[in-house]
Amino acid sequence: MNFFPITSVNNFFSDPDELVKYSKKLDYKTNINKTDGSWPGVRSDNLYNIDKELFNRTILSILSLYYEDMRGLEFSNTYIFFHKSKAFSKSKDDIRNKGWIHRDAGALGGIIYLNKNSLPESGTSLYTLKKEPVKNKTCIKIKEDLYLRGKYNEKIYTQKYNYLRNQFVKTHTFKNVYNTLAAFDGSQWHAADNLWTKPGEDRLTMVFFINKLKVKSTPRTRLDMVQQSVI
To answer: Does any domain span residue 64?
Structure first.
């Protein structure tokens, strides 16, 4: 069950230009964890470790979309990264530029787009699995071969990509619009629509993962309580 509704907010940060400038001063590293959440490109350190004021302000801003009174609310095992990635090919239609469907553990996650002149179609889509369980073990290996080891066989890659994609139905799409936040439940299946950017430009985003959240209720539980009450 999804405990948090799908949420999108335009003009999320009050001064995104300064945030982009700040992101250019940071060090970035590649993914070294060979897990289901393997990702292309490079990420900064968790903002908690380099700028706690920005970290806390951003997380509390996100949570304020769901809670008016945040007294007693606690979050932990939480991460915010600046994420930069380059296209694998100059062709927008190259399958390597399309993201793999996956989901992240935790309570709430999402992305904030930080390219001014982005390709709108390089946003994020959400999916629902047609039938449990998902069959993705071999697909994960093919994805990691490219993302982590630079290995690529077009025929096998395309076959596995389509095999995984055919297990899902697309339900929502967020366009890549500057300073727009897309947030969704941590159990939500999702994928980047396209990693293509203009030559010499990185696809810049801020990604966040609130893995542990201690609250009295969630939007879903409040909805259920209202619907079950007798009016």
So the answer is: yes
Q: Considering the domain boundaries, does residue 1 fall inside one?
A: no
| 231 token code pair | 């009016």
- Does 2 reside within a domain? no
Exposed (0-12), middle (13-18) or buried (19+): which is 205, by Cβ within 10 Å? buried
Q: What is the pTM of this model?
A: 0.94
pLDDT tens, residue by residue, 35-71: 556 899 999 999 999 999 999 999 999 999 999 998 8
- How many other C-beta atoms can be found within 10 angstroms of the C-beta atom of residue 40? 23
The C-alpha atoms of residue 167 and residue 107 are separated, in whole angstroms, by 24
DSSP 3: -
93-125 as b/e, with b when 16 or more CB fall inside 10 Å? eeebbbbbbbbbebbbbbbbbbbeebbeebbbb
As for how many domains the chain has, the answer is 1
Query: Which domain covers residue 107, as residue numbers?
Result: 7-228
Using one digit for the tens of pLDDT, what is the confidence trace for 191-204? 999 999 988 899 99
